[in-house]
Every structure is written in structure tokens, then in C-alpha cells.
Amino acid sequence: MPLFRQWKEGAAVFGIWQVTESLPQLRECLTAALPYDKELSSLRAACRQGEYLAVRVLLRALLGEEKQIGHLDSGKPYLSDGSWHISISHTKGYVAVALHPTAEVGIDIEQVSERVRGVAGRFVRPDELPGFSSLSLSDQLYGLLLHWSAKETMFKVLGCSRVDFREHLRIFPFALGTDGAFRAQEYRTPLRQTFRISYLLHPHFVCTTTLRGAD
Fold this sequence. Notes:
Layout: E1 3-9, E2 12-18, H1 23-28, H2 36-40, H3 46-63, E3 69-71, E4 77-79, E5 85-91, E6 94-100, E7 104-111, H4 137-158, E8 169-171, E9 179-186, E10 194-201, E11 205-212
């Protein structure tokens, strides 16, 4: 079973699953009396079905038991038994899950792709990525991907509608490494909350996580 990575930060639990199994193989990993097949029947695309199953297999690997996942009208996921806050993300070939018993938690995983360059103006602020033109092409790409991913992660924990990633979310400059953390701030709410964004880089993806309201 390709549990790619599992780690903890305080009470938070994170995991990334590399999806290499077939749909039947993933389904065989889930045995609890939960409405998997009914929910699967509403997903027509095989890739969506694979993501659905892989997320639940990963959740079982992280917690040692199967849990039912529901979704609010906004699309935000939650565990039906209320035992953990949960955040979910997926990209080509991978799914990611973040859990915390008391705090809002966010995770995002993004495939490494040159397409992010074409939309950078929509989410990168003028006060972000100083010295961008002097960076190597690889560092430019990972920098852009991390900015997008971090803002997706912040958006998930903010719980606000009408968030403009360029105007309302700011990433403070940081030195790029294979993993680490940087600061960010939101300007969407009167609180103007700050966030610590943790990240890791991989040849196939970038992944970012954050917490809000941890005890």
C-alpha cells in the first residue's frame, strides 16, 4: 500500500497517498458498513472514483479505522462523528489528508506543472516573490506553485466566501528549500489573521499545510 508520507505537527496528523491501485483494489481496502457504493455511484468519472476511495483508504491508514466523510453546502468536508477537523486535497496520482482534534486545519497538494506561470498574475501580489526574475526557472516554478498552494490552504481554513487570492491573501518572502515554513496573512476579515504555512517539495508535487485556532 503506497502510503507516501505520514507526519505529525503537535496534535495535527497529515498524510499523502500515492494512488497506484485499481478501483477494485482500493475498494477492497474499505470494509466498514458505510455508504461507499452509493456515494461512488454518483461519481461518473473513474478518476473521481479513485480519488474518493484513495482519500478514505488514507484516512483509515492515518486513524486506524474507517470514518464517514460528509460535506457542507460550501463543499467543506467534515467527519460525521465530529471526532476530527479534516481537510482533503488531491492532484494527479496523489491524495492528501490533514486532521486535527480541535483546530481548523488545511492542506493542499498541487501537481508540478508549467501552467501556473500563465495565471500567476491572478494570484501573486506585487509585494510577493522579490527578485523573481533572478531565480532559476525551477525555483520560479516552485515559488509560484507554493504561493498558489499556500493560498488554497489559507482559503480552506478561513471559511469565507469571495476571497480574492491576490488582494486578500499575502505570502511573506522566504528562502526556498525542499521543505520548511513561511508566514502569510489574510486581509479578507477584520482580524487580519496571520498563518504559519508548512511546505514540502517533491519532483511531482508541492504540498502546504496550516492550522487555525489550535489549543
